[in-house]
Automatic annotation (TrEMBL):
<keyword id="KW-0131">Cell cycle</keyword>
<dbReference type="InterPro" id="IPR036192">
    <property type="entry name" value="Cell_div_ZapA-like_sf"/>
</dbReference>
<dbReference type="InterPro" id="IPR053712">
    <property type="entry name" value="Bac_CellDiv_Activator"/>
</dbReference>
<comment type="function">
    <text>Activator of cell division through the inhibition of FtsZ GTPase activity, therefore promoting FtsZ assembly into bundles of protofilaments necessary for the formation of the division Z ring. It is recruited early at mid-cell but it is not essential for cell division.</text>
</comment>
<dbReference type="Pfam" id="PF05164">
    <property type="entry name" value="ZapA"/>
</dbReference>
<comment type="subunit">
    <text>Homodimer. Interacts with FtsZ.</text>
</comment>
<protein>
    <recommendedName>
        <fullName>Cell division protein ZapA</fullName>
    </recommendedName>
</protein>
<keyword id="KW-0963">Cytoplasm</keyword>
<keyword id="KW-0717">Septation</keyword>
<keyword id="KW-0132">Cell division</keyword>
<dbReference type="InterPro" id="IPR007838">
    <property type="entry name" value="Cell_div_ZapA-like"/>
</dbReference>
<feature type="coiled-coil region">
    <location>
        <begin position="60"/>
        <end position="87"/>
    </location>
</feature>
<dbReference type="GO" id="GO:0051301">
    <property type="term" value="P:cell division"/>
</dbReference>
<keyword id="KW-0175">Coiled coil</keyword>
Amino acid sequence: MSNIQKNRISIDIFGTQYVILGTESKDHIRHVASLVDNKMREISSKNPGLDVNKLAVLTAVNAVNDYLKMKEELERLQTEQQTEKEL
């Protein structure tokens, strides 16, 4: 058995209630939900005809794209920092 504390929180994303169970703080979970909700609303405002499933997929694609760009930038900075240390 694991002794990891799990937080259960009810959140609203794009008008739908979800119960999230996670090890992160409730504030963190609320923040993530807020970011997802905001991104869905942003995409929906630009594409009002999208159904919720397509909207969710576009939101996920946008989130993963942002994640990959940040990951690549972090790796670039780490490589640059390592190179500077070696000089």
